[in-house]
Design brief:
The chain is α/β, with parallel strands linked by helices. The chain has 10 helices and 10 strands.
Length: about 260
């Protein structure tokens, strides 16, 4: 049985897990409990062999308005004594939002409406970013006296280029879907009514590909994207092929040894 959640909805559509932000009274702003539910839902999808890809989307006109600074404070961690908040969770060394999505089955962010602050930076770690025609993307950090987070300062320049990343962040401006698509912040734009259906269809297509090869290809692209050493790139690719062929050989051996 799927876990019960309070701030999100979790459902399966064939081989696709759909995680829907549903905290509309606070414009789907992240709180610690909500973040933990999202992480748990991704974990549930990754643990389910019947699921091949994940779609993260939203109910209501706002995908996510960032971090909910009006949420009641969380108690200190009993082990470390540190205050538990979105920053300590989503940016934790080796256990961050970036690490979670990098190690996950393919993740599509399907943005319906406004993605603001952390709502915009969180989608940068997704494998594919789709937006509705009316979607917008705001990076208002400097205007609010804070700074970009959740890996934005590394991921955004990789996606849109350093010049555009500087323009976006230093002006604290909002982008519409057309501009976001043109610069590579998102990779597809769909009509408002078709966004979720198209995201699920795309996720189902990816779920139909071999899971191991999908995982290895995703890992290679992420690891090699910023790699300048050609030999390092080739070593990773060679090792991935070795892993793939070993898995094929093991599967064939198991098939041949199974009783008819």
């Amino acid at each position: 049985m799927p876990a019960e959640f309070e701030t999100i909805r979790y459902e399966t559509r064939g081989p696709v897990a759909v995680i829907t932000y549903d905290r509309q009274e606070r414009r789907n702003a992240w709180t610690v409990p909500m973040y933990r539910e999202i992480v748990a839902a991704i974990g549930e999808a990754n643990a389910n062999d019947a699921i091949g890809a994940i779609v993260i989307t939203n109910a209501g006109p706002v995908f996510c308005s960032g971090v909910d600074f009006k949420a009641p404070p969380e108690p200190r961690d009993p082990v470390t004594g540190k205050v538990v908040n979105i920053a300590t969770l989503s940016m934790a060394q080796d256990e961050s939002w970036l690490h979670l999505l990098a190690a996950s089955k393919p993740v599509i962010a399907a943005v319906a409406g406004a993605a603001i602050g952390a709502g915009a930076t969180q989608i940068l770690a997704a494998d594919i970013r789709m937006g509705s025609a009316s979607s917008t993307y705001a990076f208002p950090f400097l205007k609010l006296g804070v700074m970009p987070e959740i890996g934005c300062t590394g991921l955004l320049p990789r996606l849109v280029g350093l010049g555009r990343a500087l323009d976006i962040c230093l002006t604290a401006r909002t982008l519409d879907a057309a501009e976001a698509l043109a610069i590579g912040l998102i990779t597809r734009v769909c009509s408002d009514k078709d966004l979720l259906d198209e995201a699920i269809a795309l996720a189902a297509q990816m779920a139909g590909y071999p899971a191991l090869q999908m995982k290895l290809t995703k890992g290679l692209l992420r690891d090699n994207a910023a790699e300048a050493d050609a030999n390092a790139i080739l070593r990773r690719e060679t090792q991935a092929f070795v892993t793939m062929f070993k898995a094929r050989k093991a599967a064939l051996s198991h098939l041949q040894s199974s009783p008819e």
